[in-house]
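User: Some background: our group keeps a shared notebook of sequences we're curious about, and every so often someone picks one and asks for a predicted structure to add to the entry. Today it's my turn. The entry only has the sequence so far, pasted here. Could you supply the structure so I can complete it?
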Amino acid sequence: GYSRQTINKWVRKEGWITSPKPGVQGGKARLVHVNEKVRDFIRSARRATETPELPDKAYHEGSLHALLLT
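Assistant: Of course. Here's the predicted structure to add to the notebook entry:
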């Protein structure tokens, strides 16, 4: 559910191990070796559209915090 660009950014930033994907022209395609470190990172990753739950009261108050999150 994440874009190719996001995954590639994580690979570089987190130093994940990759290897070339055979049969893909251009040589840019890579296979990510999924280990426990990668699994933990992906489990904890949150999409930008995911927002934490706010109590109903916060929505009705019209607070700046609630407005920004919604």
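Suggested note for the entry: The beta strands are 18-20, 30-32. The radius of gyration is 18 Å.
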